[in-house]
Amino acid sequence: MDKLWHKLSSFAQSLAQGTDRPEGEPGIEASGTITLPKSTLSWLAALTGTTCGDSGIYSTALTHRSVVHDHPGAMESNQRLEFLGDAVLDLVISEHLYTTFPAGDEGKLSSNRSKIVNRKSLAAFARKISLGRHLFVGESADVQKIRTSESALADALESLIGAIYLDRGLSVTRAFIERHVVRHVDLHKLDALEHNHKSRLIEYTQSHQLESPVYTVIAEDGAEHEKMFTVEVSCAGYPLGRGTAGRKKDAEQLAAREALRVLEQNDGNGAGELFSGTA
Predict the structure, then answer these.
(1) Are 156 and 126 in contact (CB under 8 A)?
(2) 10 Å Cβ neighbour count for 139?
(3) Annotation says 186 is catalytic
(4) Domain count of the chain?
(5) 86 is annotated as an active-site residue
(6) Given 70, 82, 150, 158, which residue is catalytic?
(7) pLDDT for res 33
(8) Rounded to an integer, what distance in angstroms lies between the CA atom of residue 238 and that of residue 202?
């Protein structure tokens, strides 16, 4: 127990180091809970338009999983809140799109939603509110890399949304999402964008009477809290593309994008030529 407390004390000191960290020195209670610095509390109040009712839930939302990796059992990372925030974000964005596009069918609404809530977009929204500066990162991790990581920022934004929902309810959460997400999206230009490469690849294979694409994880590299996945997508046993990212879903999207490029380049000769000689 003494060793664990020594580790936690060292972690508290490390949080106060570096110019990219919020001012004020966060502390760690005996339970392992992180105490938010005053600057982070002020930042949260400015974002939500209200004071924090339960600062502990926001501490969890801002705790990267590398902290738990360094101090197992001491505290909880933001992964559970990410799950909740993802659902709340989907609800609010779906409601907004449903209202904005009364003539939009289910497919179009779903496609537009995926363009707003994909990892790249969420990371961009997170950067606009300087979310990376307020993340708590384990001392063994590459702190600067995580604070600027597309995956870490997107996850943290969803976690923060989950925390706001639990602390202040749906009304405040909806206002936060509309202010810091929807306001930065030109919904009418959104229709021209095509970010969902997996959906486009399925549409392509179906329209060309090809087998459905299959995604396979062929490599996992890095520490548990900074793991990188390499995914290969194939069709009829023929490999079409690969993608590498910190999340399997993102790696699949990158693989699908490469596969579409390969398929579209071969369209002039007929897609069937690409699969000749395969099982």
Answers:
(1) yes
(2) 16
(3) no
(4) 2
(5) yes
(6) 158
(7) 63
(8) 15
